[in-house]
Specification:
13 strands; 2 domains; five-stranded parallel β-sheet; Helicase, Ruva Protein, domain 3
Length: 340
């Protein structure tokens, strides 16, 4: 009988039911934002993007000058969620085993035992990831993509949820190593942080010079809350026209001349990979969830596109000479592609 009832529910009614479920679950994420805002002044866009990655099961790369609360934001977010958190300070002398773990010989048992590294955590903060050499950076690849780590002959699954949040300092070149394209592509979002406004900076000063120090945040979210919200995000409706819109945006980075953007061709050395299409859809669904909607609209795609695509577009020397960034290219593509 119940199966017959389920079959008779029309799409509009199904969306309404899903929308009600989303509103109930989204209340907890609104509380999470409020907790983080107790410590982080401004940077609301960054906090929202961190939640998108959390809901869409993706990883985040944060780039900005020192002192913009990149590390503090990630640490505060982990404190407001009842999950394990670890921080890895990337340095030139770091070894892959320092990240993933290694085999330790025990003379007492005359055998090797596995000592797991800090990567075995729900939230992993890879601080200043570009300070470690390529061998260490590549140690994150299997973890980020496969959600597993191999130590010796054994393979271990990583906990769920698992989120890598990496920071980069763009102003120092000495003692840094550029991230390989293969690794950058595994980050769902790349965020650029800017300086706070004057009013925000006043609030930052006040919160840091108080005798009682920074406000403590409360844990408002558990791991099962995240899993429940993720299952709802997957159910959010993505229309075929919106899918086509995603494909057109991504293809415009590969063959710009076919979309009336021929002037971009000499500026792009390579376009976005299929991961961009997948992550655009996933991030747009998570964004719609945060807006209390059970369906994706083109504005959701436009909102997340720069953060999803900017690190997946290769720039030529001509683009650098013209001071054209990947974000500028994404903006021109969004302005050109017809909105469904």
């Amino acid at each position: 009988m119940s199966e017959n009832l389920n079959n008779t529910i029309n799409p509009a009614e199904a969306l309404r039911i899903l929308s009600e479920k989303i509103k109930q679950e989204n209340f907890i994420f609104s509380q999470l934002k409020q907790e983080v805002a107790k410590v982080i002044v401004g940077q609301s866009n960054m906090v929202e993007r961190l939640l998108i990655a959390l809901l869409a099961d993706g990883h985040v790369l944060l780039e900005g000058v020192p002192g913009l609360a990149k590390t503090l934001a990630i640490k505060t977010l982990s404190e407001a969620i009842d999950v394990n958190f670890s921080r890895i300070q990337f340095t030139p002398d770091l070894l892959p085993a320092d990240v993933t773990g290694t085999l330790m010989y025990s003379p007492k048992t005359e055998s090797f035992n596995v000592k797991k590294g800090p990567i075995f955590s729900n939230f992993v903060l890879a601080d200043e990831i570009n300070r470690a050499p390529a061998k260490v950076q590549s140690a994150l690849l299997e973890a980020m993509q496969e959600r597993q780590i191999t130590i010796g002959d054994e393979t271990f699954n990583l906990p769920s949820p698992f989120l890598v949040l990496a920071t980069m300092n763009p102003i120092e070149q000495e003692g840094t190593y550029s991230l390989p394209e293969a690794q950058v592509d595994r980050f769902m979002l790349k965020l650029f942080l800017d300086y706070p406004t004057k009013e925000e900076e006043k609030l930052i000063i006040r919160s840091n010079v108080r005798s009682e120090g920074l406000t403590k945040v409360s844990k408002v979210l558990a791991a099962n809350d995240i899993e429940r919200a993720r299952s709802l995000v997957k159910e959010i409706y993505l229309d075929e026209k919106v899918e086509q819109y995603i494909v057109d945006i991504v293809y415009a980075t590969r063959t710009p001349e076919k979309y009336g953007l021929g002037f971009l061709e000499p500026l792009i050395s390579y376009g976005c990979s299929p991961r961009a299409s997948i992550n655009l859809a996933l991030a747009a669904k998570a964004y719609a969830f945060l807006q209390n909607r059970a369906f994706v609209i083109p504005e959701d795609i436009r909102a997340v596109a720069p953060d999803v695509m900017r690190h997946r577009i290769g720039l030529t020397y001509e683009a650098e000479a013209e001071n054209m960034s990947a974000t500028d290219i994404v903006s021109k593509i969004l302005n050109r592609i017809e909105v469904p």
